[in-house]
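Hi F.,

I've been meaning to write this up properly since the lab meeting, where we talked about keeping a consistent format for the predictions we share between groups. The idea is simple: the sequence comes first, exactly as it goes in, then the structure tokens exactly as they come out, then a line or two of notes. No screenshots and no reformatting. I'm using this chain as the first example so we have something concrete to point to.
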Amino acid sequence: MGEPCILAIDQGTSSSRCVLFEADCRVVGSAQREFAQHYPASGWVEHDPEEIWSSVQSTLSDAVKLADDRSIAAIGITNQRETTLVWDRKTGACIHRAIVWQDRRTAETCESMRQDGHEALVTERTGLRLDPYFSATKIAWILDHVDGARARAEAGELAFGTVDTFLIWRLTGGAVHASDVSNASRTALFNIHTADWDDDLLALFNVPRSLMPDVRDCADDFGQATIDGKTVPIAGVAGDQQAALIGQAGLAPGVTKSTYGTGCFVLANTGSEARPSSNQLLTTIASRLDGQMAYGLEGSVFVAGSAIQWLRDEMKLIERAPDTEAIAEATGVVEDVYVVPAFAGLGAPYWDPHARGAVLGLSRGSGRDQVVTATLQAIAYQTCDLMNAMRDDGVEPSVIRVDGGMVANNWFLQFLSDVLDLPVERPVNVESTVLGAAFLAAYRVGLISSLDAVTKAWQLDRRFEPGMPANQRDALLSGWADAVGRVRASE
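Output, unedited:
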């Protein structure tokens, strides 16, 4: 056999990818498949688990063909977080569609629990909030709405998992029911201080412990997958945002990254300290490697790249996502039109599940170009909200590293730098999420001896410096704050 390589699975919200990396994590090739989004009711978002599995299988098969005579040393997995699946332990079949992280169906349940005074316990133990974003209320909803599910769960017949756990189960033929600490920390059931499922929280959300997977380090033994008749160890697992931080060489305290995929997620490494937020951000686990925990402070925006998809698919204002760059270049900064893309409510720092989207400030002269450009600007404004909250929590980055599909847009990154009043760095490899999963797997099986290799491998493509006058920036952000106030349901 030839040189060893790593297969990294990136199971996202709208597609699944598999990327083949050489031992030093240079890309050999990749395969990608989109799958359907299901919206059975207002605010509900679901995926068909079998479509997820089929998309992963097909991309794995395509990527393996790219290996030629290389041996596959390990598999890494990164995934959309919080998305919730429950399946039959005997058959492996899910008892309901996957309830996606964007889904808001349990908003009333969360509000009721908040009014009953339970949020303080949830936040203290998990670093999270009582919000339908997280897995706990999604699990309870499935158990309460699928006939016989709760009794079967109590009898130990069912298993819960986020997408990583579901894929591990399927890839190992049901031999391994496990997750990693980063994904577990997003369920609202995992105590980030004791690093275990919390019995008080399981009781609060009425979720049987028998459903829960084993929780392991991010670089660990997750069992053996069978691919093309050969067994390959699954050796690295991390939720997508934590994997992106690793791929951005964010292994030291203070490194901050912002990922622009379906949503936008800003995550800062705070080291061994689980730093609580006073500004509606989330304290989460960034990674655990060789038993050493690293925490993070995170802000989550539910709609970023999906707003560009909305412009393309629902509004028909653009044919392709890259068209937004040329439109914005020709239009320039829009100062009177604001798009608030609260299609799934507002995430941090507002946490308003009932807010809905709006286009504000239209005049007779407003047209497609203004709406398209204002949508790009909205994504930057939302990032600014998160960064301001981080500053107020004592995290003061000197630069922000960006990744994800949207960062190919130079106009967007320059505007982002301008409104943040911070340098923005784009790496040569903007696919930091899947790269992080590959690094974890390579580290576990010894293809790299130290995660210092991640820092050495990171390369700068372009740095964007702020240049907008302060008075213009202040006026734009004031207009944004007014627009957000107009769509909030809880104001």
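Notes:
The CA atoms of residues 122 and 149 lie 25 Å apart.
Residues 368-392 form the longest helix (25 residues).

If this format works for you, I'll send the rest the same way.

G.
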